[in-house]
Structures are given as structure tokens and as C-alpha cells.
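Re: the 125-residue chain
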Amino acid sequence: MANTPTINLFGRVGITVGDERISPFRTRHGAMLLTYLSLHAGEPVSRTQLVELLWPMSQEGSTRNRLSVTTYHLRTALKPYIPEIDDVIISARDTITLVPDNVQIDYLEFQRTVALIQSNPNEGE
């Protein structure tokens, strides 16, 4: 899985593919969207929730379009690095879901490692 794309949430948000680190975001909203979806990987997140999170002081009508545009630009930017992006970021009418089947997420790997260490505290001794 050396060339499996990794979404990096630790440090600067971006994607690592092999030895190449990419920051494919046109705006900070793209980075925030990827971060939030990654932290809720596998869970459908409502578009309303994302709009309120990313544009808290804006009126809903224009922000739903902003969310669609931000999602489109994020998917387009990631496509060269994650060819399966259409299966990774799933846009439905009312939700967006990041499916972690074709990517790794450093935060989730960290959580798994901590859980493994906690379940076997004397393993390394």
C-alpha cells in the first residue's frame, strides 16, 4: 500500500502519494471540507451541517452553491492523485460522505495505533 494516497491531517492538511506531498486546495474551505469529512470518514455528513460549519455567517441559499463548488474543485484537484475520487467523496442530495476504502487517513491510523498499544500495553517489554 506504498502508493495508497494518505490524507494528512497532522501538520499542514494535504495528501501524500508515495514521497510526494500535495496541497490541492484552491481555498481554505477546501482544506476545511476535506478535514471535516476525514474526521467523520464513513459517515454521511449533512450539507446543511457543512454549510453552517464552513460559512457560518452567510445566508443558506448562496452557501449551498458554494459547498457544491468547493466539493467540485476538491474532487477535481484530487482526481490525478486519487483516481477513485468518485468512490471516495460521495455527494448525495442532502449529504457528503468520505469513504476511506481507497485512501488512508493519518488521523485514523494514529487512532488505530493508540488503540492497539492500549490493548497490549506490555507487548513491547
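The longest strand covers residues 14-17.
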